[in-house]
C-alpha cells in the first residue's frame, strides 16, 4: 500500500512537471516587461484533470521593456527584447533553474525591433528578424551563452500600398528542413527574403526572394513535408499574410549547380482563414504552427471576435468576446484543406503553442492579458474546451512549454 502510494506520488510528480514560460510587454507606465513561469497541473498519463490549474512560480524582468519572443533549448531560455524604451534592443540568455526561475547569463545589444529568432548551422549562429529596425541580423553563439555580432542587412525599401507598409518590416525567420537556407517574411516589403547559409562561417548570402502579392503583408511561415524526415522533392512552404489574411502554399524546389545550390518556389494555392464564412472586417492574421504529429496546420486571427467564451473569472457570468484559431489539414500535394475555427479565449491571439503530445494548445490573447489552455483532439485536430486560464498577464507576446 505504502509502495503503491509512493509510486503514484512519483508518477504524479513526473507527469505534472510541465512548466510554461509566458512573456509580456511592460505594463503602461512600467519600464520592464516580464517572463512569468507557471506550473500546469496535469493528471496521470498526461491526461488533463477536469479543472487543470496554472500556478505562478516566478517572474523575471531581465529581458528589457518589450520581451517579444522566447525559445527554450536545453536548460537555457533565449528572450528577445524589442527595445521599445531603449536606444537598442537585445538578445538575452537566461538559465532555467530547477524551480522554474530564470537567471540572466548574457545580453547583447541588437538593432531595434527584433520579433523572432532562429538558430542555424547546428546552433553555431542565430538570426534575428527586426520588424522595427527593417533588418536581419546574425550572431555567433559562444559556449558561455553570449553572442558575437556577425552580419547586419538593413532594408531601405520604398513604401508599400498599405499604411503598415511604410518601410520594410521583417517579421519572422525560419530554417528549411535541409538546414541550408533561412527564409524571412517581410510584411512591409511584400517579400519572403531568402538567404543561404555558409556552413564554414555561418555567413548568409542573399538569394532570390519570393514576391508576395501587393498589400498582402507576409508575416510568419512554416516548412512542411508529408515525409518524415522531409524529402527535398516533397517540401512545401506555407506563408501566412497579416494584411490579406490568407495562407499561400509553395512547392520548394531545390536546385544544385556547381557548388551553388539554390531555392525556388512554385505557388500552389491561396486559402482564406475563415473557410466558407466571410472574412470579418478588421481581421489580422498572426501565428502559424505545424502540429507535433505533422497532420495539421493551425493559425490565429486577431481583431475579429466571432466567438464568445465563458468568463475566466468564475464569479462573472458575462461571456468574453473571443477571436479565433483556424485549423487546416495539409494534403500530400502541398495544399491545405480547411478543417474549422475555434475560439482563442480573448482578444488578439498573437501567439499560441502546442504541448509535445499536441493534446493541449496554449493561446496568448495580447489585448485581454490572458492565456487560455484548450484541450485538442489529436485525431480530428478539433480544438475543444478550455481546461485552464490565467488573466492579468498584460500584453502577452509568447508562450513556451517546458515538458
Ligand atoms: C544600436 O542601434 C543603432 C541605431 O539603430 C544601430 O546603428 C546599431 O547598430 C545598434 N547596435 C547594435 C549592437 O546592434
Ligand atoms: C564569453 O565568451 C566570449 C567569446 O569567447 C568572450 O568574448 C566573453 O568575454 C565571455 N564572457 C564571459 C562573461 O565570460
Ligand atoms: C547562387 O544562385 C542563386 C539563385 O540562382 C543566385 O541568386 C546567387 O547569386 C548564386 N550565387 C553564386 C555565388 O553564384
Ligand atoms: C465591413 O465594412 C464594410 C465597409 O466599411 C461594410 O460595408 C460592411 O457592412 C462591413 N461588414 C461587416 C460584416 O461588418
Ligand atoms: C480592428 O478592426 C476594426 C474594424 O472592425 C478596424 O477599424 C481597426 O482598424 C482594426 N484594428 C487593427 C489593429 O487592425
Ligand atoms: C465581467 O466580465 C465582463 C466581460 O469581460 C466585464 O466587462 C465586466 O467588467 C466583468 N464584471 C466584473 C464585475 O468584473
Ligand atoms: C491536391 O490534392 C487535392 C486532393 O486530392 C486535390 O483536390 C487538389 O486539386 C490538388 N491540388 C493540386 C494543386 O495538385
Automatic annotation (TrEMBL):
Keywords: Signal. Residues 1-17 form the signal peptide. InterPro entries: Cycloisomerase_2, Haem_d1_sf, Lactonase_7-beta_prop, WD40/YVTN_repeat-like_dom_sf. Pfam families: Lactonase (PF10282). The keyword Ribonucleoprotein does not apply. Gene3D superfamilies: YVTN repeat-like/Quinoprotein amine dehydrogenase. GO terms for molecular function: 6-phosphogluconolactonase activity. PANTHER family: 6-PHOSPHOGLUCONOLACTONASE, 6-PHOSPHOGLUCONOLACTONASE-RELATED. Belongs to the cycloisomerase 2 family. This is 3-carboxy-cis,cis-mucoante lactonizing enzyme.
